[in-house]
Structures are given as C-alpha cells and as structure tokens.
C-alpha cells in the first residue's frame, strides 16, 4: 500500500519469478488495485485523524504509514522524527508505542475493509463491490496467463530433454550394433508418449488396448506408478511458495484440495505441517522442527550408548526386521513397485532406529512407514543417513499424534459393520454367514495377540458406535493405548480364538489398523493418507468412510463368495484392483452423506451381469434398496457414455508477431482471408472425436503495439456445434481420468517464388520461377469445454458444459500429437513444434464463448457476410402475409420451453449490433377487455434513437389470444447499448363496461444477457412474459434506471401473457412459430391451478367474440349506432379508437379492474369461508361457556327469483363446524375449508349469516377412548345476524369482509328490500338503535370466485370495511378485534380433565384426543337443535 521504501522482498513476496511477475503486474499504474487502495487509505486517514493531536503518536503513525501516505492524505502536517527520539521517548516506551501503533493500524484496516465489503463473507448479499470484482477479474486473468505460459515453457523444456535422452540412447544403440537402424523401437516410442504432456496425442492405431493396460495394472513387478504429472507438481510447488508467504492459508488450501491426490512437493509440506501440529502445541515460539530433530537425535545417541551398539541403524533385532521387511515388500501389492534394494534398506534402517529410540517394533510398522517413504522420497539411488533419521522422527510423530488407538480401530471396524447392516441387510447377513463356512483361519494374518489384548479394553463399543462416528474429533486418543504400544510376544496375549478371527469384522480391523496400506494399491493408499492429513488431525471418520466405500464397491464380489476362503480373498486381494478414481468418487459420495447403496455402480470393474443366484438374492432386497440401486445411474455413475452437446462461438484470434517477422517471413505483411485454415477438434484425452473446419475469418488491419504487430481475426458468424458425442468405446481414456477438450488450430498457406530446372534440361541460369505454396501452422490452443461435477449426494456425476466467455493463450506451432495419417512424422520430428521460426509470440490469444445448445437456442451460421440495410427494412415492420396460430381451442394453456424446438435463428448479436424485436401474440386476455393494441419503448439505450412500438392484432386471429405480425428493427448505429437495456411493453384496451381507454397490463424484457463475466449478448429467441399492473418500481420514478425485475412485485393479470421474439437483424421478416412448438421461454408463465381453471373457462366461453375482427365490429356497433355506415378499414378504426385522443385533456389512462377480469360462471361457483366472530362480550351479549356456530344462508335477488326452478341450484346454505381451540371464547375463529356454492348470478344476491349460541357442558368418558356426552344443553339463542353482498358488475365481489353483527332477528321487510336494493343503501337508510346493533361486535368472512383455489391466487384480495362505517364507529370495531384478553375455547376441554392431564396442557395426548371428540360431539348436538329451528322456520334440512 505504501510504496516508498519498499524492499525487494516486498515486490517479490513469493520468490518465484513468474508469480512475482504476476504480482507486480497487478500493481502497474491504472490497475484495479489502486481503486481499492485509495478507498482503504481514505478510510484509514479519516479513522486515524483523531489520533494525530499528540506529537509522539502522530509521528509514530506517520513512520508506520510511510511518507507517501502522509504526503497524499496529510499534506498540511509535518513529520518530526525528534518526537520519538531520546530523551523525549525512552527506548522501551518507543517499542511499546510501535506495537500499539501497528496493532491499531491493522485493526482499523480490518474494520474499513469490512465496511467496504472487501472481507470474504462480509457483503450484504449483493456480492462484492464493483472495484473488488474488477480486481478479482484482473488478477485472475494475469495469473492464468502467467501460469499457462509457465506450463507451456516447462512442457517444452521437458520434451526437449526427453528428446535428447532418446537421441543419446539411440546413438549408443547404433554404436553398439555398428549399423543403421531404420526402424525406431516401438517400446521407446511408447515410453516417450507416456512421458509427454497430457496434451500430447498419438494415432489410435498405436495405442494399446484397454485390456492390455488393465492387465499390466496388476503385475507383481514393474515401474513405480507416477502419482502426479509435471503440471500438477509445478502447481503444487507454486502453492508452497504461497504458503511460505502466508502459512495461515494452509487450512484453506487443503480444504479446497479435499478429495484429491496431493502433488508430491505439496504432500511433503502438508504432511510435515500436520505431523508437527502436536509439537507446536507443546512448544514455545521458535523452530519447532529443529527442536524436535535435536531432541530425537539426543535420545537416539543416548540409547546407542545404553545398548552398547555401534550405530542406531543396526539394532540387536536387525535380522528380524530385515526378514519381515523383505516379506512385506514381496507380498504387499502397493509395495511391489518399490521392491528394490534402496527402499528395502531405507525401511530396515528406519525401523532399527525406531527400535533404538523407544525400544518398540512391530512388523506392521512397515505399513505405516511406507507412505512416509514415498512422501519424503528424495529421488536418490543411495540411502542417506539423514533421510533415515528424518523418517524415523516422522514415524515417531505419526505414532504419537496421528494414528488411531486400538480401541478406536475396534470401534471404527464395528461401526463399518453396523453401517453395512443398516443400509444393506442382505450384504451384511451374506458376509456373516459366508465367514462361518469352511472356516480355515490363520492367526498370524491378523495379529491375534493385538486383537485379544485390546478387545477387553475397547469393549467393542457397539452400543455407542454411531455416536462415536458422528462426534469423532481427534483421531488419536492419547489416553488410550496406541497401536504401536503393544509389544510383540507380550505375556498377556492369550491364545487365539478362532471364533473371533472368523468374524468378518477382523478383516476391517486389519484394514483400518494398517491404514489400508496392506490392501490398496500405491495411488489409492496415498489418496487415503492425503485425506487423513488434510483433515488436520486423523479423523477416524475418514477411515470409516473409506472402509465402507471399499466394501460397497466390492459388493458384487462379496455376494459371489461362497465360503470363508473366497470371502478372505475378497477382503485381502480385491481392494488393490479398484481404480483410485472410483475410490475417490465413492468416498466423496459417502463423505457428503450419500446413500451407501449407490456405491456398487461406481466400480467400473462391476460390468458383468450377475449370476442368477445373485439376482435371486437381490430380488429379495427391500424396496428402498432396489430403488436406490435403480437410481444409481443418475446419481453416482461414472461420466456418461455420451457427452452433452456443446457449442463454441464468437471466436476472436489475436495474432501477435514481432516486427522482425516481416523480414524473415514476407508473407506476413499481407495476410489474406482465403489462405487461413482454422480447425477445431474435440478430443477425449488423446482420442479424436469430432473435427470441424471453420469458416474463413475476417481480418482487421494490423496494429503496431510496443514493437509487435497485432492482427485481429474474427469469426462472428461461426458456430461450432458438437452433437451426438459418443465416448462409450473410449473406456481407456475414461478410466484413466481423461477429459474432453477442444483443440483449435490455425494455419496459413503462403506462396513464395522458387526456381527449378525445366524438364528439357535447361541450366539453372535459365531456370524459370514458379510459386510454391507452404502451409505454416501458426498456433494452437486447448479449450476446456466441460467440467466434471463431483456430487454432493444429490448431484449428478457428469460432464457439464463449462459455459462462458474465456481467453486462452495461442501457443506457437502445431498441436504436438496430430492424427493426420498422411503426415507420418519420425520420432524426432514429432517432438518439434512445426512453425515458421517463431511467427507468433506467446502473447497471442484466442477468445471464445462456450455455450450449452440445450439451454440456449442453437444458432446456425449465416451463409454470407452481406451487410443488411436497416433503413430499407424499417418500413417493412409488418409481415406481408398473416400468420394464424389457429382458434383458441388449438392454443395450449401452456407449453414448456424446448431449447431445440427451432434451430433456424441467427447468431446472437452483441450490444453494438442491430437486432429485431417481434411482437407475436397475447395469450388469454381478461373478460373485461375488448379490442387491444401493444405499445412499447426501449429504455436505457443512451443516445441511440429508436422508434416506439405500436402493434395491432391480425383481424383473423383469436380475440382471446390475438396474434400480431409486427417487428421493430433496432439499429444501434455502432454504439454499445447498456447491457441492462430493457423493452417496456404495454397492452391497451377499451374497457368492456366503461368504454374508456385503459391499460390491461405491462411487462419488461431485458434485451441482453451476460454469459460468463465479460460481454453481453442478445437474449435471442422467443419469450413469454406475464402481464403485470402498475408502474415499474424505480428510483424516484427515473425510467433511466429501470430494471427488468421492477414489475415483479406488482399484481399479475391472471393467465394473461405476451409472446415476443428477439432476433439478430435480417432483411427477411421471420414468421412467428406456433406456440405448440415450445419455442418460447415460458417458465415464468406456467399457470397455477387457479389460472388453469380461468383458462379452461375462457376456452369454453361462447359469448366472447371469436376473432379480433368480430370484437372490433362488436365495439363499433355498440358505439356507432348506425350499422349501415361501416369503416373501410376495421384495423384503422380500431387503431384510432385505441388512441389517447379519446381521453380528456390531461387524463392518464387507468388500468382494467383486476376484480372484474374474470366473470362469474355458475359452473365454477364461489367459495365462502367464515373466519371469525369477535366482540361477543358483556352481560347482555355473552356468558361464559357458550358454544357458538354460524348458519349461512344465501338469499337470491329478485331477478334470480323469477328464473325457472330448473335453472336454480339447490338451496345454498351451510353451517360452520371446526373451531380453532386456541382462539377466545368471545371471539371464536373457524378453520373450516371454504364452502363452494353455485347460485344464479344476481347483483342483489346476498349472504345472510346468523350467529347462534348454546350453553352446555362436555363430559368425557373415563377411558378417553370414546367420545363423551353433552350435558345440560340449553336451547339455541340467536346472538346476532349480518349481511354480505356477493356479486357486482358480473363478477364475484371477492375479498375479506369485516361486517357488523346486528341484534335480534332480521326483519322481513328489510330482507324484502334487499332483493331489489343494494346492502349499503338499505343499511344506510335505516336508523339503528342500541337495541338493534352492538357497539363493537363483528364478523369476518372471506369470499372468492370459484376459479381461485387460494387467496394468494386472487388478483386483488382486499379488506372491505364499508358496512362498519355505516353501522358504527370503525375504531371501536378495530379495538374489539384486537382485544386478546379472556378465556380460550380449549378451556372447555381442559376443565373436564384430571389434574395430571390438565397440567400437561394442550400438548398432552389425552387433551388432543378429547379435543377431537369435543368438536365432533358438540357440533352434532348443535346441528340437531338447528335442524329443529330451520324446520320451524320452513327452511330445508342442512344434510
């Protein structure tokens, strides 16, 4: 931050040239970092300003912050070093002030960074600030560019060295044999190919078969496996440089590397750090490793003297150790590749030193030492004494702080068995039963003395195994007896128990006790140990997860075993045959909580159909396991046999050439489009899958930049599509972890003159010139187009398209492993880059956009580059011929988007290229609309002048779903539009009732989408948009800041939507596709259950005009009066009728009423729900213990009464039932489902609600198993009544009504008036006395149209309190409704229970049983009394 006085170490923090270069590049002038620095510095200056009043504190802060900071932010203040010098400040005081000052500055910076959103996880949810994102992006680009360059140079050097080695070997062979060898040794070539980079390729004819390679994997001898490549090792070394600079990031790095094999150098660093963790806790500050080394050396030296031996590497038991080690290396699969004198000698000497150090030795120490030998191997052919002592020290630390104790091993093994039993009962019983068949045990194989000695101490812990697994913290329980503490030949070891050894859990103890070294191959062993060290402390849960993963990977092998011998073979010999990749994938699945029954299919050896006996056994599995196994192909299968389609477009090449190239290669001065050849090949590893030839590029004029010539090659209309990618035959590539990638290679064919003698024997002086063409490969790049998703448990393991824009280095020369059969390169030639003496520099790049054709409409190339004329096409905004989608019955309610429905779209444009906007259709306009038009405007487009949108429907299209033939060509005039530009559409209509011009709804469409993190591209294709009402939510109503989401919170017009298209501009008008094709992106418009019912009603409506022209004529005739004078052009009349000139001056059009957008239809009816009665209190109103219900009856209006009885529905009345027992007795709440009734429409139809009450006591039975009885029930008492209107303007008057409760009974004359007069008028005309009304008692009822299944689906669901204002004071009603004092309904039940059950409250089982009985019995008793009342009143029965 403070540049003056920086040391070289500050500018080279990593001590690695390429990393330091990247770091310095991020600090170049005008880099994004300085925006962050400036913000931090300004904040820091503001924070420390109060501290500058004291001279010594000010001077101290100035010295800490540096002169640059002071001059920039405190130029008015002067620095005076004398304030901190003697005698003003003593030395001790100065040091204390410096510590405080540095701590203060650090703390202030942390606070400022947090407030600015610069600390990880400290943002407000909106993401990092813009300047931080720019810094991330810049740093990432700089880093990847430097990394790729370094890897490229490293690979080039490696190939050159290998070439020289091969040449030397070839020369020696020639010299020894004394003759020329014309044929290269194929074995030598094979070794070269194996050593070359992962990007190197060979012809498939020379590749060994998968079967041969698999066969070689299980050889008992052979070369040691290569655990990581050169690139991985280089990256590991780079990470170590970062850790040296910032050691605290170790946990972060290892967490990100979890589930991966560590590079060799990084493994050494991580393992050593973890081994020393325990010592660091116990040691003071200082070099802990040095202290441990010195302590270990002193102890060994002392023990050598005590034992009276010459050297620690030759202990008294050296012969015993040597015999055991040799046996282990000859028989253990993972050790066989290292069965050589160097490894064996080193192992023997280390174990001898260990015996001298602590007088302990066990044969299985060899297993624990072996991974340490590999991790800390120094590539020396001779055994170094220093290495021996280091390994002995590391082994001691491993035993002391990492290895689990034997009790933990026993518990872990038993836990594995418990998990097998829990998830796969069949496998568990098969293993247990098979182990007892022909049991022939050998105690020495299982360290029986250890098993029996520890069994008592471990206690097998079966009861608490599960809790142990979930709560395991440290892997080493140092209070228990550790593995290495058991001495061979201990007198306490009893005789082996065959039953104990025959238990299959003994194999799991062997696995875990040996940490899997004895059963896995080398790579898998190192993977397991890497995971254990990554966990910071050896968490035994990792051991359990690995063990259970191996068991289930080998499930098919276990199920085939028929006796103990075969079972033992599976446990001891099969795990080493598993692919490391399968073990890794299975462990990750288990580690993330996945189902164990998914694991068998991960094993790629498990490809044979199982035997009939096995299938019979599996057929008996529980359904849960069968379902899990059947779903494994989609949950945890290896990468699929067929890749998803992938596309590459927007290809831009930047060819950077040094200026001198014009002298050596004159053809570069005038590059021609036709001479370029660009090929794009998809590979799976080294196997070619699909090759595509690109179109000729567009070339820009060369630009000179810093002594280099830069050519820009663009392929704006090229779209590379890779479809139907089969990789099933490439099991070798798939098994070995290869990945699919695209190699893009560019070459150029140049012409140069040459002289050659003619065929008639002319002399060279008379030779004639001819032109010779040469093809020069300029460069190539490797494009990663897929990512392999490793599942958390519910994800799919698959190759996922790596979408986004990215820039790659264009490496000079030819891709190193060409499959061109016509070019049979020799071994030496194949190692060279075929280029023109370095035509390109390493700064050349290729930019592409990778996309998923299944998610984005697949574009097709434009055949020519003929420019289009927007001016000529602007006048043709309407199609010459109409496109008809069909009648409304032919239009589906909704069709899911199918990305591949149409593949004829043009290439999507960027923000500075022309495009077209099409208005295609409206779907399911509301009932209260008539003729319609669509208007629109493009917002946030800057200075670009763009016409507004005005679209009129086609006359023959459906009136309910009108279609349009309209497009707006948009000419950006070369300007870059804002990536957040939006199109704002509005739909206008003439209201069906008021005949006023109103707005149906509006919608917003974002025109561009950002793919990746760079450029924005047109959201080409079809879009189905919901219609909303209301203005967009913008800042201060500034439409210059409008966003596509600003209508999301406004009300939705039910079922209504608009279809539009965005397409790159073309001269031809593109007819709209039919909706059935799934062309339109329709996810946001999927109708809910209510909207589906609305759409169904719309389709069945015979009264709505059929076509748009019919609607125009209907409106015209209803307004014109004279039917004989008809307009010549109905469309022009409709356009004029929808013009704003029909509004009064200054009048703004309103919106159609959402409450009237769906007319009432008797077959759908309406839903009524009584929710609450409140305010029933006072001596004259209510007494304790009264049970209340509401009787609802519908009174038809006069018009409905005059209809024939056949058209009248059955009598509409019902009784409330279920009450919320936690509500108040004076304000009961009902929880009944809404009641559907289907009355004939009449605006004077009303609901009459009568509230009845009765006093009674509920008596439960003594057993509480049967419903109780109602005792002392009084006659029903009419507590009050009220009225609610039902219909208005042809629709249901839906909403939440809060109405007053009136006293006595409704008068007959009043009910008669209500048949012809509205409720408001009747109640307003009457004077209500205190005896006829309550001051604050009311009823709440919900009314909804039958189309809508819930309140959330209603377009406008509002509170209606109008009747409260007519009858009384609304404030009093609100206060009464808010009153929460009083007894609850559940007291009716609680008071009948015993003291014990009453004390349990409403959560007690007895109460909950009796509550149900109370509701049932009380309602039946109440209903019986009400039936008598209705019968006396002449009403029909409720039943």
Explain this structure:
With 1439 residues, the chain is α+β, with helices and mostly antiparallel strands. 36% of the residues lie in helices and 18% in strands. It contains 47 helices and 40 strands. Strands 2, 5, 6, 7, 13 and 15 form a 6-stranded antiparallel β-sheet that branches. A 5-stranded antiparallel β-sheet has the order 4-3-9-10-14, with no helix packed on it. α19 packs across α22 (465-471). The longest helix has 48 residues, at 130-177. The two termini are 85 Å apart.
What topology does this entry show?
Elements: H1 8-11, H2 17-25, H3 33-48, H4 55-65, H5 67-73, H6 91-116, H7 130-177, H8 186-195, H9 210-217, H10 230-245, H11 250-256, H12 264-275, H13 277-282, H14 288-307, H15 318-331, H16 341-358, H17 365-375, H18 385-401, H19 406-423, H20 425-435, H21 448-458, H22 465-471, H23 498-502, H24 505-513, H25 522-534, H26 540-553, H27 555-560, H28 564-573, H29 580-591, H30 612-619, H31 623-630, H32 632-635, E1 642-643, E2 646-658, H33 661-664, E3 676-684, E4 687-693, E5 698-699, E6 703-705, E7 708-722, E8 725-726, H34 731-735, E9 740-756, E10 768-783, E11 786-789, E12 798-801, E13 804-809, E14 811-812, H35 827-830, E15 845-851, H36 870-874, E16 915-923, E17 932-939, E18 949-951, E19 963-970, E20 982-990, E21 997-1006, E22 1008-1010, E23 1016-1018, E24 1021-1028, E25 1052-1064, E26 1080-1081, H37 1089-1100, H38 1108-1120, H39 1130-1137, E27 1150-1151, E28 1166-1174, E29 1186-1195, H40 1198-1201, E30 1213-1215, E31 1235-1237, E32 1246-1255, E33 1257-1259, E34 1269-1271, E35 1277-1285, E36 1287-1288, E37 1291-1292, E38 1295-1302, H41 1308-1313, H42 1319-1325, ...
Parallel strand pairs: 21-27, 24-26, 38-40
Antiparallel strand pairs: 1-8, 2-7, 2-15, 3-4, 3-9, 5-7, 6-7, 9-10, 10-14, 11-12, 13-15, 16-19, 16-25, 17-18, 17-20, 20-21, 22-23, 24-25, 28-31, 28-39, 29-30, 29-32, 32-35, 33-34, 36-37, 38-39
Helix pairs in contact: 2-7, 3-6, 4-6, 10-12, 14-16, 15-16, 16-17, 16-18, 17-18, 19-20, 19-21, 19-22, 19-24, 19-26, 26-29
């Amino acid at each position: 931050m403070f540049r003056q006085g920086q040391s070289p170490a500050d500018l080279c923090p990593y001590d690695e040239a390429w990393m330091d270069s990247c770091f310095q590049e991020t600090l170049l002038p005008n880099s994004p970092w300085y925006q962050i620095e400036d913000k931090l510095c300004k904040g820091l200056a503001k924070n420390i300003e109060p501290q500058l009043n004291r001279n010594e504190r000010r001077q101290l802060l100035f010295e800490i912050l540096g002169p640059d900071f002071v001059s920039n932010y405190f130029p008015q203040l002067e620095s005076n070093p004398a304030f901190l010098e003697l005698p003003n400040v003593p030395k001790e005081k100065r040091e204390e002030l410096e510590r405080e000052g540095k701590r203060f500055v650090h703390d202030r910076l942390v606070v400022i960074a947090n407030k600015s959103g610069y600390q990880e996880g400290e943002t407000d949810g909106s993401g990092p600030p813009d300047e931080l994102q720019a810094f991330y992006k810049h740093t990432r680009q700089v880093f990847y560019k430097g990394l790729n360059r370094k890897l490229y140079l490293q690979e080039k050097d490696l190939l050159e060295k290998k070439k020289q080695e091969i040449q030397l070997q070839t020369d020696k062979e020639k010299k020894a044999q004394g003759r020329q060898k014309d044929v290269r040794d194929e074995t030598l070539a094979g070794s070269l190919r194996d050593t070359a980079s992962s990007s190197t390729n060979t012809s498939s004819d020379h590749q060994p078969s998968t079967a041969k390679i698999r066969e070689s994997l299980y050889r008992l001898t052979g070369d040691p496996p290569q655990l990581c490549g050169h690139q991985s090792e280089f990256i590991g070394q780079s990470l170590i440089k970062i850790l040296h600079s910032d050691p605290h990031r170790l946990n972060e790095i290892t967490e990100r590397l979890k589930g991966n094999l560590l590079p060799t150098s990084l493994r050494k660093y991580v393992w050593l750090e973890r081994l020393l963790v325990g010592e660091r806790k116990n040691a003071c500050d200082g070099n802990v490793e040095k202290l441990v080394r010195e302590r270990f050396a002193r102890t060994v030296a002392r023990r050598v003297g005590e034992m009276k031996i010459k050297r620690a590497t030759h202990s008294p038991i050296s012969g015993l150790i040597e015999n055991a080690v040799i046996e282990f290396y000859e028989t253990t699969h993972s050790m066989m590749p290292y069965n050589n004198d160097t490894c064996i000698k080193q192992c023997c000497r280390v174990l001898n030193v260990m015996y001298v150090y602590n007088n302990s030795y066990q044969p299985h120490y060899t297993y624990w030492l072996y991974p340490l030998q590999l991790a800390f191997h120094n590539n020396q052919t001779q055994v170094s004494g220093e290495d021996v002592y280091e390994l002995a020290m590391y082994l001691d630390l491993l035993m002391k702080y990492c290895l689990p104790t034997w009790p933990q091993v026993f518990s872990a093994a038993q836990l594995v068995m418990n998990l097998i039993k829990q998830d796969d009962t069949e496998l568990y019983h098969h293993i247990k039963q098979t182990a007892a068949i022909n049991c022939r045990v050998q105690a020495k194989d299982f360290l029986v003395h250890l098993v029996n000695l520890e069994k008592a101490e471990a206690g097998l812990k079966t009861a608490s195994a599960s809790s142990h697994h979930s709560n395991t913290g440290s892997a080493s329980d140092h209070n228990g007896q550790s593995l290495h503490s058991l001495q061979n030949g201990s007198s306490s070891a009893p005789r082996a128990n065959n039953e104990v050894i025959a238990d299959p859990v003994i194999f799991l103890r062997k696995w875990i006790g040996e940490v899997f070294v004895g059963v896995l191959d080398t790579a898998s062993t190192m993977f397991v140990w890497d995971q254990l060290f990554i966990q910071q402390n050896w968490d035994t849960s990792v051991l359990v997860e690995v063990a259970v993963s191996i068991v289930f990977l080998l499930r098919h092998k276990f199920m085939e075993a028929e006796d103990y011998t075969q079972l033992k073979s599976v446990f001891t010999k099969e795990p080493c045959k598993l692919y490391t990749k399968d073990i890794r994938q299975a462990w990750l699945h288990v580690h993330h909580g996945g189902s164990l029954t998914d694991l068998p299919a991960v094993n790629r050896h498990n490809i044979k159909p199982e035997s009939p006996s096995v299938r019979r056994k599996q057929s008996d599995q529980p359904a849960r396991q069968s379902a899990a196994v059947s779903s494994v192909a989609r949950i945890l299968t290896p990468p699929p046999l067929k890749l998803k389609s992938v596309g590459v477009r927007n290809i831009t090449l930047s060819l950077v050439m040094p200026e001198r190239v014009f002298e050596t290669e004159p053809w570069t001065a005038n590059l021609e489009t036709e001479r370029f050849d660009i090929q794009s090949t998809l590979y799976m590893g080294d196997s070619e899958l699909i090759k595509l030839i690109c179109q000729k590029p567009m070339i820009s004029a060369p630009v000179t930049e810093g002594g280099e010539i830069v050519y820009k090659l663009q392929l704006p209309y090229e779209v590379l599509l890779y479809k139907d990618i089969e990789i099933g035959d490439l099991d070798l590539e798939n098994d070995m972890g290869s990945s699919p990638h695209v190699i893009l290679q560019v070459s150029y064919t140049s012409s140069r003159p040459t002289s050659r003698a003619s065929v008639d024997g002319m002399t060279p002086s008379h030779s004639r010139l001819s032109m010779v063409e040469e093809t020069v490969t300029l460069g190539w790049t490797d494009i990663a187009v897929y990512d392999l998703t490793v599942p958390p448990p519910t994800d799919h393991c698959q190759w996922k398209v790596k979408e986004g824009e990215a820039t790659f280095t264009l490496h000079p020369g030819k891709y190193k492993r060409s499959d061109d059969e016509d070019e049979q390169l020799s071994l030496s030639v194949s190692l060279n880059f075929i280029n023109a003496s370095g035509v390109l520099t390493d700064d050349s790049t290729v930019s592409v956009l990778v996309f998923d054709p299944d998610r984005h409409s697949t574009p097709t190339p434009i055949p020519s580059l003929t420019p289009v004329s927007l001016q000529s096409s602007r006048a043709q905004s309407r199609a010459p011929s109409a496109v008809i989608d069909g009648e409304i019955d032919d239009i589906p309610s909704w069709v899911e988007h199918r990305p591949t429905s149409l593949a004829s779209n043009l290439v999507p444009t960027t923000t500075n290229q022309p495009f077209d906007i099409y208005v295609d259709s409206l779907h399911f306009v509301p009932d209260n609309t008539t003729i319609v038009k669509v208007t629109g405007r493009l917002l946030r487009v800057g200075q670009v002048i763009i016409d507004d949108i005005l679209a009129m429907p086609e006359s023959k299209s459906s009136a309910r779903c009108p279609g349009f033939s309209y497009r707006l060509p948009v000419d950006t005039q070369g300007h870059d539009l804002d990536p957040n530009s939006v199109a704002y559409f509005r739909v206008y209509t003439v209201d069906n009732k008021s005949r006023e011009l109103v707005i149906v709804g509006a919608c917003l469409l974002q025109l561009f989408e950002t793919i990746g993190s760079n450029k924005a591209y047109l959201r080409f294709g079809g879009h189905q948009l919901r219609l909303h009402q209301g203005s967009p939510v913008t800042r201060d109503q500034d439409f210059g800041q409008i966003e596509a989401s600003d209508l999301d919170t406004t009300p939705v017009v039910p079922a209504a939507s608009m279809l539009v298209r965005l397409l790159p501009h073309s001269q031809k008008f593109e007819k709209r596709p039919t909706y059935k094709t799934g062309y339109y992106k329709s996810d946001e418009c999927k109708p809910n259950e209510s909207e589906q019912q609305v759409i169904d009603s719309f389709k069945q409506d015979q009264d709505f005009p059929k076509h748009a022209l019919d609607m125009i004529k209907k409106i015209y005739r209803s307004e014109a009066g004279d039917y004989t004078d008809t307009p010549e052009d109905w469309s022009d009349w409709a356009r004029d009728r929808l013009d704003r000139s029909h509004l009064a001056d200054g009048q703004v059009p309103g919106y159609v009423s959402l409450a009237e957008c769906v007319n009432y239809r008797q077959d759908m009816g309406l839903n009524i729900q009584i929710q609450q009665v409140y305010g029933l209190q006072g001596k004259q109103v209510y007494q304790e213990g009264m049970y209340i219900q509401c009787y609802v009856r519908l009174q038809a209006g006069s018009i409905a009464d005059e209809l024939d009885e056949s058209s009248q529905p059955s009598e509409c009345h019902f009784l409330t039932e279920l009450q919320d027992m936690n509500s108040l007795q004076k304000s009961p709440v009902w929880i009944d489902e809404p009641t559907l009734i289907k009355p004939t429409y009449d605006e004077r139809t009303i609901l009459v609600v009568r509230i009845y009450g009765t006093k009674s006591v509920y008596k439960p039975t003594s057993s509480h198993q049967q419903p109780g009885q109602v005792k002392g029930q009084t006659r029903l008492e009419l507590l009050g009544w009220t009225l609610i209107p039902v219909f208005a303007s042809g629709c249901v008057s839906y909403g939440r009504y809060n109405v007053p409760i009136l006293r006595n009974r409704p008068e007959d004359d009043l009910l008669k008036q209500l048949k012809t007069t509205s409720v408001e008028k009747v109640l307003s005309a009457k004077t209500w006395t205190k005896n006829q009304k309550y001051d604050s008692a009311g009823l709440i009822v919900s009314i909804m149209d039958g189309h809508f299944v819930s309140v959330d689906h209603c377009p406008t669901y509002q509170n209606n309190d109008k009747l409260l204002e007519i009858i009384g004071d609304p404030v009093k009603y609100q206060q009464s409704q808010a009153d929460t004092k009083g007894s609850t309904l559940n007291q009716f039940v609680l008071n009948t229970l015993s003291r014990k059950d009453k004390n349990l409250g409403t959560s007690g089982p007895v109460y909950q049983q009796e509550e149900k009985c109370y509701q049932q019995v009380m309602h039946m008793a109440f209903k019986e009394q009400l039936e008598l009342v209705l019968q006396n009143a002449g009403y029909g029965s409720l039943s």
